[in-house]
Automatic annotation (TrEMBL):
Gene3D superfamilies: 1.25.40.390. Belongs to the SusD family. This is Starch-binding associating with outer membrane. Residues 353-507 form the RagB/SusD domain. It holds the Pfam family SusD_RagB. GO terms for cellular component: cell outer membrane. It is found in: Cell outer membrane. Residues 81-221 form the SusD-like N-terminal domain. It comes from the Bacteria.
């Protein structure tokens, strides 16, 4: 079963914020709000609207985490939006990907704030106290999700935890990373206390207690990482001991399982969270809705695949990126010859289109050419696993290697060897942090985790600059400095309220 929590036409009209300036967190007018929030279904639709802003999340991960990292050497023939991301240009403030990340995440935050405000004011219309509590918890989980996404990209952020008018938004400056973390952590702690452990029926796929635990563990781990001398996600807080029990609770719950076959995790036939036991939290899509596929289907499967490949197999509808965004030689060569993950994740066979032959590899993990959509390239029918069980296991190993109590080197080795056995590889002993991150790189390639893994490793600058020296045949990538661990504040935000924000250093 494939679905996304989406808006009906009426709720879309009411809830969509259509502002010329992304800073303007324009609230729903009092008259519209009073008209809309009158029944439980209204509150459910408003909650669904918050989920809807996850739609582009996987594409954002591809464009701003994978392309930014040593997994992609994507310098193109002409200038594309990904070029300045891949080559560490200091002139990224007007980049479309950067602008989209800020605007979409804050739109999700706006929607969460609106729902929380309306439950507080009109909670009697929700229908039951238990449903009101659950919807509040879902909104807080999603608000935390969007804020954490923003924090890892931009560092300091304006804290907006209630609906505000445009003039009010234009007076709210950026708060410290520490204060943003306080909001995220408080939201997730509240979500953990109030979200159910499972759902049934049409609610399957909504955020659960375990999704909130996994996200909070990631928050503590990102916060614990070195700060590189900048105001980014790492603060050196050393809170690995706070993350580990959350991860262990998920593992001990018995609700999830390690899939024995790697390809099954991403199978189009294994998409329901009720069936795919690796899926702790999905971004959910549905395909084939007549006239609306551009809204509800997925486009991320082809984001890092070239248009010429689809044309080479006589598919004129799916398209893809305008030019190839190649997997780096360094990543492709890092796989052992027996590693089954490489053939599944990376296309290496080459292809010919219009007389031109291309042999550079590209990511294909989410592609199944027997499932090419018939209506639109935006209508792929596969969910995106935003949090998966193997990640929880490997994050547990990372906490232990960073000194968290409650685990041992034997536990770390057992986790890594479980992953390696599934990939067809021999066991290893005495796994180090560096080896763990190398294994994560291959396991989660094309899932958007690499840039954030590099942030946590503390070795981002060393790894990236060493990679550039080996990989950058065109001499197009600039040296990576600490300021480039995060992105610039979008130019649209600087222009919306001149003087309110200062640009991140280095841009």
């Amino acid at each position: 079963m494939k679905k996304i929590f989406f808006l009906s036409t009426i709720s879309a009209v009411i809830l969509m914020a259509s502002c010329n300036k992304d800073l303007n967190q324009v609230p729903i007018s009092s008259s519209t709000t009073a008209t809309f929030y009158k029944s439980p279904s209204d509150f459910l639709q408003a909650t669904n609207a918050i989920y809807a802003d996850l739609h582009n999340y996987p594409v954002r991960l591809a464009n701003m985490s994978e392309i930014r990292s040593d997994n992609i050497y994507g310098v193109s023939v002409t200038v594309r939006d990904w070029d300045p991301v891949n080559d560490f240009s200091p002139s990224l403030a007007a980049n479309a990907y950067v602008t989209e990340a800020w605007g979409t995440d804050f739109n999700g935050i706006f929607r969460a704030n609106t729902l929380l405000d309306q439950i507080a004011k009109n909670g009697s219309y929700v229908g039951s106290a238990s449903l009101a509590t659950r919807l509040q918890a879902e909104a807080k989980f999603l608000r935390a999700f969007y804020y954490f996404d923003l924090l890892r990209y931009f560092g300091k952020l304006p804290i907006i935890d209630h609906p505000v008018t445009a003039p009010e938004a234009n007076s709210i400056g950026r708060s410290s990373v520490a204060d943003v973390y306080k909001l995220i952590i408080a939201d997730l702690q509240s979500a953990i206390a109030n979200l159910p452990t499972t759902y049934t029926g049409v609610d399957v796929g909504r955020a659960t207690k375990y999704a909130a635990e996994a996200l909070l563990a990631q928050v503590y781990m990102a916060k614990s990482a070195p700060n590189y001398g900048i105001e980014g996600p790492g603060t050196g807080s050393n809170e690995w001991n706070l993350a580990l029990p959350l991860l262990q609770d998920i593992i001990s719950s018995g609700k999830f399982a390690f899939e024995s076959t790697y390809s099954n995790i991403f199978s189009y036939a294994n998409q329901s969270p009720a069936v795919n036991k690796e899926a702790i939290f999905d971004v959910m899509y549905t395909s084939g809705i007549s006239g609306t596929s551009d809204l509800y289907g997925a486009s991320y499967p082809w984001t890092l695949a070239p248009s010429a490949y689809f044309l080479s197999i006589k598919d004129t509808k799916s398209n893809g990126s305008l030019e190839i965004i190649p997997v780096s030689n360094d990543l492709a060569n890092s796989y052992d010859a027996a590693d089954t993950r490489k053939a599944f994740s990376i296309y290496t066979a080459g292809y010919t289109n219009a007389g031109s032959t291309e042999n550079r590899p590209f990511f294909k993990k989410w592609l199944d050419i027997t499932k090419i959509p018939t209506a639109s390239r935006f209508d792929w029918g596969i969910n995106f696993i935003a949090i998966r069980y193997t990640d929880v296991l490997m994050l547990k190993a990372e906490c232990i290697l960073n000194g968290a109590t409650g685990g041992s080197q034997a536990d770390v080795d057992a986790i890594v060897n479980q992953v390696r056995t599934r990939a067809g590889l021999p066991s290893v002993a005495g796994v180090t942090l560096a080896q763990l991150f190398d294994e994560r790189r291959r396991e989660f390639a094309d899932e958007g985790s690499r840039w954030f893994d590099l942030q946590r490793s503390g070795n981002l600058l060393t790894i990236m600059n060493s990679w550039i020296a080996k990989e950058d045949a065109q001499k197009a990538i600039k040296p990576v400095i600490a300021n480039y661990v995060i992105y610039p504040v979008p130019q649209t935000q600087l222009d919306a309220a001149p003087g309110l924000y200062s640009q991140n250093p280095g841009y």
